[in-house]
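User: Assemble these into one structure.

Assistant: Restating your components, then the assembled model:
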Amino acid sequence: MPFLAENHIVFICKGMHGCTSHILPSAFSLLSIYMKLNLNDMARCLDLPVSTVDRWIRQGRIPIHRSGNDCIFKESILEKWAFNHGLRFSLPNEERKKEQKFGLTNLLPAMQLGGVFHDIKGDDVESVLKSAVDKVPVPAINKQGLYERLLEREALTSTGIGKGVAIPHPRTPLPEETDNSLITTCFLEKPIDFEAVDDRAVFVMFILLSTSIKNHLHLLSRLAFCVRDDSFVEFLRTYPDTSSLLSKIADSENLLDKADHN
Amino acid sequence: MRILRRWRHPASWSIFRLDDRLLLILIAVIVGTCSGLAAVALNRSLIAMFEWLHHFRHYWWSFIMPAIGAALSALFLDKMVKEGAGHGVPEVIYSVSRYGGLMRFRSSFSRLISSCLTIGSGGSAGPEAPVVMSGAAIGSNIAKLFSLNDRQRVTIVGCGAAGAISSIFNAPIAGMVFSIEVILGEWKAVNIVPIAIASVAGTEISRILQGNQIAFSHRLFHIGHLDIVACIGLAIISAVASVLLTRLLRSMHGVSKKAPFPIWVRAAAGGCAVGIIGIFLPIVLGEGYHPLRTMIEGAYTQGLGIVTLAVFAKILATSLTLGWGGSGGIFAPCLVIGSLAGLTYHRGLLLLWPSVPWVNEGCFALLGMAGLISGMLHAPLTGIFLIIEITGGYEVILPLIIVSVISTTLCHYIEPVSFYLKELVEKGQLLRPGTDARVLSDLSVQELLEKDCIIVKQNMLLRDFINIIKKSHRNYFPVEDEKTGRFLGMIHLDDIRSYLFNPLMYDAVVLGQIMDTDVKVVYLDDDLSEVLRKMDVNRLFSMPVIANRKFLGMISKATLLDKYRNELMVQTDL
């Protein structure tokens, strides 16, 4: 197609890996902007097998022109077409953003976000939770609600998982109260009875707030992995400061990632 | 040099890429004109051949002329262009439904020559179907030149067929309707617009070159109420005649296939038989337009007995010509048989109720033609519009509609598939857009492949396998040989669930021991309808796909439904 080859301005979208999009002014395209992607990228954008896209173009079922290995199309027309046919069309850079949003948060960023606090005051579960919730970095109007939800969960069964550790959390995820999953670490002033499974007094609480059930399970299983390790609990009993706790967590998490990969 | 290259590929002229619809209309004009020219060429050469051979018709040996013509035409098709005999319309429909309208270039002239030999020498066949085939082939090749996609090419093939019929009958609407009703089977604006344009172009070419003449003009008919009632009887008779013609054509075809002679000998034998019939009843010879004109004018003088005999003789002659390897269409024979049937019916009516003032016999001849065309093709609209246009009479429209629709319905009862489509349906190759068969044949196993299965080795311990289960999204695990990579069997989580919670088994069992080796598999080039049948018979929801003894992925009903729906939506909405 000569109008593609001759004197056109090439405009490369940033952030699109491996694919360039050309905006082509030709004799008649003052009103319309053509884009060019290669077949593999096109198939990825439409979330379809390459062979399907190839066949549809050949059969003329999709508003794309073919020139060699390149697909030439108008974005607006293709988007409308995809919507009308129950398909998804998004250019690669948009797609990446979406993935990030639904991805899982790891322990370290969640703990950094939630913060580490020492000397939390209180004599029983209610008062300890009350003073802990004050420290949790969520907007002040949500704090009372969060406190009630945590108590509600404790009423069901204790979240003390043994070895002096408790992981208070609400029963349902809190996507409206917090944008990101977070863990607030609270070392208590004095150990209290939490009705934990092994009846040992709890000296540290990890308050776990998550945006989705999936994230909740992910964080919980990672936390449980750390706590299962006795040396980690011993380390906690030294009431470490923020930076050394976080570096310890980072080490444990690296270990976990390695095990997952093998 | 560059400019030269651009001229050689019209697909790259930017004027044609302005808008797809505009491009199709432009191409439709070209294709309509070309196929119109092809139709005129065939018509002219038939006339020339008829005049040239006319002097020989008085000799006693004239009965072998159809034999020579049929043999030459069979030889030409078989040896020179290497195409099968027959009239060509099923071939066009086949290429439309299976190959997106791709046709060979030589098809655009091969049928013209062979049918000219068959019909010009006296074989009982029509020039329309060959013209449809060349028109369609011209369209297909022009579409290829413009590098159109399948969908557009199919429309252009329809344009070629429409232009050809419009030109040969001087009947634009009939050409349009025939092309959409019979060839494409899809009434959509994207088809109709270019096809209508092609019809106009084809008709105009024929009018410029041959004058605007109505093929079978007639005087005014005065149709009474009783005539309309009597039409129902005519519809029954024409339905019987079309079923008879269909059956006889097919059985002749079967008989000739079994005959142990080369194809040109068979064609000669058929032609010879037609020639002998022609000695006694010359009406059966050729395409028969001349006697047709006499019949519609009401000037055909033979009595009831001869006319009835002529119906059967023409049916026989047509099936002998076409079934034994001659080349030509069934349009013209249908018209002749229809008008003979109409005459028979009229004479019968006169015999039974001589005092009733029946309409002129020409009218019944005309209605009979519509009945035969509609019945043979299962295309009532084609029958109605064709007859109206070639006779130029609108006053017969009411009985015409009645005869056409009743004849179509009756034929549909007896022969559920029309003559053109019968062979394709039997082979399962009629794939109209938007049907189940079409969707399944378009989708391939490759497109449905699910590649998220984790492949395991046969000597892996159950303990290691448990770690793999953690990471997998699927319940199925293909097992392969470590060394050769050959697929050995499948592990389904349901089958081994009870061992999974028994740590004693972890180091005692390797996967080779617990896999299922008797697995039903699918191959990459399997037909999807066959795959679905396998799934239903074995009550499976997913099956492994194998190529070169290696595991490629899974195919499952869930994904199939997803893709099937996408495909259906994409195919039906345009």
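Residues 242-261 of chain A form the longest helix (20 residues).
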